[in-house]
Amino acid sequence: MTHAWRVALALLLASAGALRGQAPATDADRVATARIDAIVRDFVRRGLPTDLLRAKVAEGTAKGATPARIADAVSLLATRVDSVAKLLAPSVTVPELHAGAEALSVGITGPALRTIRTAAGRQSAEPYFLFVVRLVRRGVTQDQAVRATRALIDRRVPSGTLLVVADDLARDVANGMAPDAALNDRMTRLVGGAAGATGPGMANTDGTSGPMVPLGGTRPP
Question: For the range 75-83, what are the long-range contacts, defined as Cβ-Cβ under 8 Å and sequence gap of 24 or more?
Fold first, then answer.
């Protein structure tokens, strides 16, 4: 491993001692640190990016978290990144891994991520993953968020516009509008409604195929 990583682990152990009034690191601290190191080494061996894991260690150290808590957080993050890598195999970019892991952290499902990745085609799915994350964090349901995202992809709406939509929706919700109603309104203004995806072969967020339910509508019989 790199010198910088060894320094990061040493700082983690030192901070653990500082939390106990400069007491030496305990066996539990060393076990937790070794666990973190093993996770990062495994990512290196498998060719997966380690920057998110290292950032999580740095964040935990800066906040004074114990090595055990940091190890748990790193393990959870590693599981999410690994899940995204498997979901989107064989071809997935580092930004997609990062955004996909964030999506899983807010409760977006694997099938929903695959739906977006398929809809994006040759485009990077990263901005679309992050768009869904922002919508879900504002209270929009996963299905509504994914349908809206697919509609924007189908209409080739520039990815930069996604930020505008998300910001506008956030203001609407802050002003008391229901999240799904706010999304319906913004989508109607942007693409004239009909926010459900139209391709009969596209997978729905539940893994089935067929036409999606229009925003605010019901599934056709």
Answer: 75/35, 75/39, 77/52, 77/53, 77/101, 78/39, 78/42, 78/43, 78/53, 80/104, 80/105, 81/43, 81/48, 81/49, 81/52, 81/53, 82/48, 83/110
